[in-house]
């Protein structure tokens, strides 16, 4: 193969794993289920084709479903491309296999491009599997094959660019959390830039083009919207001057070029610097210290004969240990009774470059906070039941929860990949000390991602945008979801011995919930004016979502509590969406706090009772 043996091995071995086929089947089945659900909402649960006035209504239905589901395909492709590529490279680095690959005769391009395309293989194949489904929608009318082609092209270009971003950042950064966090923040900034340009804040005309055209050429979301625009042929000449055709396809074509160019630049940088970034400076400093430790025999003998002055040595005391223990000389800090929590809080467990992640998050918070404040007095647009001030807050809260979840899951997968988890399990640490220590460390290191959104919510209550009760409900939901995100990360890290799969299941579960919520809300607002009988229409989607959650989170250690939590979460989410659209915010808080609080307890209580962690000591087929 042209990209080397890394991709060749993945292309040969991937079809042997069932999940390679399950991914595309689930994606197409989900889209088909949503289309059937939209049909039930569109024509009525007891209706049928007889309720349609003619081919025009059928064409409008096909176009509506196309506009609803194509952004979902784009979002899934972009998010999971970035996640899989960053997680795959980070796992190679954590396990030390990347250094072994660097010792072979693989060229830099074979290593970088091979690893990238190998991690994107599942996403690209699943995207291709969507093409027949979209062509089937074209048979209904309302869309043409050119729109389908440009939508798939925009999706592929955006997925490749997002995967290249995740791969490059993972090759650059040493810690898994840093790579995942910077990738997520980079995607948010990319999408935010397109929305800012499209809003006209930077000017209605940029580089001789309208703000919308410029945004469509740099943002995947805006490019997909332009690609889905209907084309009615070339407009008539105006004053004898021939007018250009609709610019939707032109903007989509520009974005495809920009996406591939961005991917090329990121991969060129990774190919040029992969051996500069790896091995990391940390490994090099350790090697230098090891060489310095190999002193001449005379110096070693002198060091043994002349031990350090006991008065200059301070030994950490934990669990009542005496000072007369083996130590390496020098001063050390006192350790808390919970050494896991002490390490997470009092040391740079996730590297000093985590400050870059926090600075980038603060920048996103400032942008979203300014947009929220500016939208406070703005009326809602049309039929939208979502307040304008909540629109810029939604991506901020999603990013915050994803970062907390990523920090939690990598805190345990990093220990396993570094071969230190086995050592921790052989000590006298209790399950409560390990789990609570990791949770406390996640909350402490992600304190900016937790406190800043809480502060923004309090500000909205202070200026009167929220009543006291609405503020209390919002804060309760935010706190419960934050704890749920952290516990979900630890739960996934405990039941999967593959770091890549643990990260994918943990972050993917959150994304599944968020995408499900947004898709259901868009379908309800776009296809129906009432909510009567919609529970029956969404019943299949609810049951399927509950089954997917149970397989992902409770298949290894099934329990009644986890089964109840898995199957109740989609139903409670649907109930919360309907209650929110109807303005019953108290019911939204009750459904959210009750359901996800119970799910948190279902995962946390067994973990605090005994160790049941997949250590990865046995080889697995998923690796």
How many domains make up the 3D coordinates?
2
The overall average pLDDT, rounded, is: 81
- In the sheet with the most strands, the strands line up as 1-2
Structural class designation: mainly alpha
Q: Portion of residues in helices?
A: over 70%
- The SSE order reads HHHHHHHEEHHHHHHHHHHHHHHHHH
Largest sheet: 2 strands, antiparallel
Annotation field: number of helices: 24
Strand content: under 5%
Radius of gyration: 27 Å
Approximate shape: globular
**Strand tally:** 2
Cα distance, first to last residue?
22 Å
Low-confidence stretches: 45-50, 233-246, 292-305, 312-316, 617-623
Q: What this model shows, in words?
A:
With 623 residues, the chain is mainly α. The two termini are 22 Å apart. The protein has helices at residues 5-13, 18-43, 55-94, 97-102, 108-138, 145-172, 176-199, 211-218, 220-227, 248-277, 281-293, 297-305, 339-346, 354-374, 390-417, 421-426, 431-445, 447-462, 468-495, 499-527, 534-537, 539-554, 560-581, 585-609, and strands spanning 205-206, 209-210. It is built from 24 helices and two strands. A two-stranded antiparallel sheet has the order 1-2. A hairpin with a 2-residue loop joins strand 1 (205-206) and strand 2. The protein has two domains: 5-43 and 53-231 and 247-281, no CATH class; 339-609, no CATH class.
């Amino acid at each position: 193969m042209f990209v080397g043996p890394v991709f060749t091995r993945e292309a040969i071995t991937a079809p042997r794993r069932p999940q390679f086929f399950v991914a595309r089947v689930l994606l197409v089945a989900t889209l088909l289920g949503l289309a059937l659900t939209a049909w039930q909402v569109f024509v009525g649960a007891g209706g049928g084709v007889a309720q349609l006035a003619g081919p025009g209504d059928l064409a409008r239905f096909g176009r509506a479903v196309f506009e609803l589901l194509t952004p979902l395909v784009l979002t899934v492709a972009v998010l999971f491309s970035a996640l899989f590529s960053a997680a795959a490279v980070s796992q190679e680095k954590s396990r030390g296999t990347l250094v072994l690959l660097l010792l072979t005769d693989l060229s830099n391009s074979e290593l970088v491009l091979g690893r990238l395309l190998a991690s994107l293989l599942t996403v690209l194949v699943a995207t291709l599997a969507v093409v027949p489904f979209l062509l089937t929608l074209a048979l209904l009318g309302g869309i043409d094959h050119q729109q389908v082609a440009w939508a798939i092209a925009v999706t592929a270009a955006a997925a490749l660019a997002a995967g290249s971003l995740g791969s490059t950042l993972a090759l650059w950064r040493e810690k898994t959390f840093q790579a995942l966090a910077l990738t997520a923040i980079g995607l948010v900034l990319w999408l935010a830039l397109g929305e800012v340009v499209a809003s006209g804040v930077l000017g209605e005309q940029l580089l001789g083009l309208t703000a919308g055209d410029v945004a469509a050429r740099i943002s995947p979301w805006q490019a997909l919207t332009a690609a889905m625009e209907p084309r009615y042929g070339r407009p008539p000449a105006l004053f004898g001057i021939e007018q250009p055709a609709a610019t939707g396809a032109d903007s989509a074509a520009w974005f495809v070029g920009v996406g591939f160019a961005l991917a090329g630049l990121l991969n060129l940088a990774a190919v040029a610097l992969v051996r500069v970034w790896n091995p990391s400076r940390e490994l090099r400093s350790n090697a230098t210290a090891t060489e310095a430790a190999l002193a001449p025999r005379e110096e070693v003998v002198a060091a043994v004969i002349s031990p350090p002055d006991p008065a200059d040595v301070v030994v950490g005391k934990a669990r009542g240990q005496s000072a007369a223990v083996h130590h390496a000389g020098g001063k050390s800090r006192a350790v808390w009774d919970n050494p896991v929590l002490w390490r997470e809080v009092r040391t740079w467990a996730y590297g000093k470059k985590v400050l870059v992640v926090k600075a980038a998050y603060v920048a996103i918070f400032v942008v979203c906070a300014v947009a929220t404040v500016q939208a406070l007095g703005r009326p809602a647009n049309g039929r939208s039941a979502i307040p304008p001030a909540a629109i810029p807050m939604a991506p901020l809260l999603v990013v915050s929860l994803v970062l907390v979840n990523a920090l939690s899951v990598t805190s345990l997968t990093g220990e396993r990949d570094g071969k230190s988890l086995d050592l921790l399990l052989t000590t006298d640490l209790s399950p409560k000390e390990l789990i609570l220590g990791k949770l406390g460390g996640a909350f402490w290191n992600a304190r900016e991602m937790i406190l800043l959104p809480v502060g923004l919510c309090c500000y909205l209550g202070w200026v009167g945008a929220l009543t006291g009760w609405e503020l209390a409900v919002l804060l309760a939901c935010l706190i419960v979801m934050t704890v749920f995100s952290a516990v979900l990360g630890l739960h996934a890290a405990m039941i999967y011995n593959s770091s890549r799969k643990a990260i994918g299941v943990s972050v993917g579960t959150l994304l599944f919930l968020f995408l499900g919520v947004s898709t259901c809300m868009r379908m309800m607002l776009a296809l129906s004016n009432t909510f009567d009988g919609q529970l029956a229409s969404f019943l299949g989607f609810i049951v399927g979502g509950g089954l997917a959650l149970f397989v992902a989170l409770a298949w290894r250690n099934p329990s009644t509590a986890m089964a109840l939590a898995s199957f109740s979460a989609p139903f409670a989410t649907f109930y919360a969406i309907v209650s929110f659209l109807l303005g019953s915010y108290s019911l939204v808080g009750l459904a959210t706090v009750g359901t996800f609080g119970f799910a948190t307890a279902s995962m946390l209580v067994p973990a605090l009772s005994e160790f049941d962690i997949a250590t990865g000591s046995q080889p697995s087929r998923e690796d």
